[in-house]
Amino acid sequence: MLTRLTYKINHALERVFPEQRLFLRSEDGTRFIRLTPLAQCLGWTGSAAFVAWSIIATAVLLMDSIGSGNFRDQAARDQRLYEERLQILSTQRDARASEALAAQARFNLALAQISDMQSELLSSEDRRKELETGIGVIQSTLRRTMGERDEARRSVEAMLAAAKDEANGGQVIATGDATATLDFLTAALESTAAERDLMAASAVQAETFAQDMIYEQRLRDERNDQIFQQLEDAVTVSLEPLDKMFRASGVPVNTILDQVRRGYSGQGGPLTPLALSTKGGEPDPDSLRANAILTELDRMNLYRIAAQRMPFAQPVKSAFRFTSGFGMRWGRMHNGTDFAAPIGTPVYATADGVVISADWSSGYGRLIKIQHEFGIETRYAHLSAMSVRKGERVSRGQRIGDMGNSGRSTGPHLHYEVRVGGKAVNPMIYIKAANDVF
Questions:
Q1: Whole-angstrom Cα distance, residue 202 to residue 135?
Q2: What was the pLDDT predicted at 343?
Q3: Would residue 99 count as lying in a domain?
Q4: Does any domain span residue 438?
Q5: To which H or E segment does residue 316 belong?
Q6: Which end of the chain has fewer CB atoms within 10 angstroms, the N or the C?
Q7: Radius of gyration, alpha carbons of the chain
Q8: How far is it, in rounded angstroms, from Cα 323 to Cα 331?
Q9: Which pLDDT tens digit goes with each residue over 101-159?
């Protein structure tokens, strides 16, 4: 059956591949090999397949080489782009740090000026009280002196009238007694007049002093208004980026500030409002403005403490490139952001916290988990080395490990996650929110 099928195939192929004989001559004789049409067809088919495979393989290698060159060029361009972006971010961070230092200096100056203003207000209030007391004494003395003068005048008039009546009645008054009485009355009137003039001069002097005090108070009020205006502008300029940063983080700002306010732990306390005596009345406008500024400064101090406890920093400070962001990837949820860099690149904690895990974790490889305040947790995966242990307290910017390729990873990179209340959120929310401040 096989021989008959082979015969039929050879007969069908004989028109295209006629039978050939290959003669082999040697010293012993001549031999030949018969090449059937089927053998020739198989040989030609194998040769053609080999040639086609060679052409296709060569084309694939050439295309791969060209594509690799393009990928390398693209990777180099991306690397330069990321380095330039990183340099820009570093410059912006340094500028924000300088602005923060300048703002801190302005705040310290503001506190000193507020303290001086408080001292001046207290001394002004004391001088005002002394002035009121002096004016009251002068007025009472002046009233008493004028009363004595009027009393003396009435006495003189009564005595003169009595003397006149007695003269009309025919009675004779001793000239010496009348002269002595008149001299006494004249001296009393002169003394009263002199004391009156002295009191009047004192009253004029007191009124002049009061006008000077009013003028000085007006100048002081204008100067205080300018100082308050400068302080309010400085506080507003410094608070706006902080408000924007914390609002962008997605965590309720009031909740953060209330928790920080309840948990001061040696990092500075709330600023005490000014407390001046109002004698049961409403506080003066300067005290209200000063207390408002102190309230804003206290809010800024709370922001400063909270910023250390929230992951606003970047986990990688060396040159890197973003390879995968937060979101769906290959049909699965990618819960973090990937930073690609060489193995051994330092990895830093992005906020103050406590290490709750530093161990191998299946697909994560070497994984570090840090618990921060406000229910925030950060994760650092695929590390090549870990520098912290479970239970250790770390600070923002502290080196906690090295970048690696452990676990389920396609290349050296850091997988960085931020979780709030156990739910993964986009880490770039915090990193981008801090770009205008740090």
A1: 9
A2: 95
A3: no
A4: no
A5: none
A6: N
A7: 51
A8: 17
A9: 777 777 777 777 777 777 777 777 777 777 777 777 777 776 777 777 677 777 767 77
